[in-house]
Specification:
It is a single chain. This protein is of the alpha+beta class. Helices cover about 20% and strands about 35% of the residues. It contains 6 helices and 17 strands. The strands form 4 sheets. It has a 7-stranded mixed sheet with strand order 1-2-3-4-5-6-9, with helices on one face. It has a 6-stranded mixed sheet with strand order 10-11-12-13-16-17. α1 links the parallel β4 and β5. The mean pLDDT is about 95.
Length: about 210
């Protein structure tokens, strides 16, 4: 687990690498109100459960940036444990319900959305707001999650010096680049980007150096 020191000291941010391919799962919380959101509960529920318990916070939301198996593996167990709603874009919910990825031949425990994420929504988390950007391309229902003035969770849309793959069902390279250029790149250059895999980066760095966006 990695805990980041945020400019706003009241904001808790931890990253866990979970599941078969070490997908990034994030815990983000308001330390004062003890409200916590889990972004992409990828798997290894016992590890995730212990990390949540250690924060002393209550899980308010379970966010899925998209529906691929490596980002939703602990959805069902986490929902049973916390009662928190599972949130995903409607286009990707079928992947949750089927519990099987034919491309990778991987099974996960099926789950279902309690509510759907849509462009422009705001989900309150203590004194913060989590805003939804619809960023398709990696999947048809991909979203990114912004805490204004703090950070963005980009899922598998944008990585450090890379972008998400688009050769899987629902993928579109043109849509992906449009999502990055017209949604993510409208954010401030100094905003940190926390991706679904690998290290964090910054919007300005990706504008300048990402070879896929040249």
């Amino acid at each position: 687990m990695i805990e980041y020191k945020m400019p706003d000291e009241n904001l808790l941010l931890q990253r866990l690498e979970l599941g078969q391919i070490y997908t990034n799962c994030y815990l983000v919380a308001d330390k004062e109100t003890k409200e916590l959101a889990v972004v992409d509960p990828a798997g290894d529920f016992e590890v995730l459960q212990a990390a949540i318990d250690q924060t002393g916070c209550e899980v308010k939301y379970i966010f899925n940036t998209h529906g691929h198996w490596d980002h939703v593996g602990a959805n069902a167990q986490l929902h049973k444990y916390t009662g928190a709603p599972i949130l995903i874009h409607k286009y990707d919910e079928p992947m949750l319900k089927q519990g099987y990825d034919r491309f990778f031949q991987v099974r996960t425990e099926p789950s279902a959305a309690d509510e759907f994420l849509e462009e422009g929504q705001t989900w309150p988390l203590g004194r913060y707001n989590i805003e939804v950007l619809y960023t398709p391309g990696h999947t048809k229902g991909g979203v990114s999650l912004v805490i204004p003035g703090q950070l963005v969770f980009s899922g598998d849309t944008l990585f450090q010096l890379s972008v998400g793959r688009t050769d899987l069902p629902g993928g579109s390279f043109d849509e992906l680049l449009d999502s990055i250029r017209n949604k993510l790149f409208k954010l401030p250059d100094d905003m940190p980007v926390f991706s679904g895999h690998g290290a964090h980066t910054y919007i300005g760095e990706e504008k300048q150096y990402n070879p896929f966006l040249k």
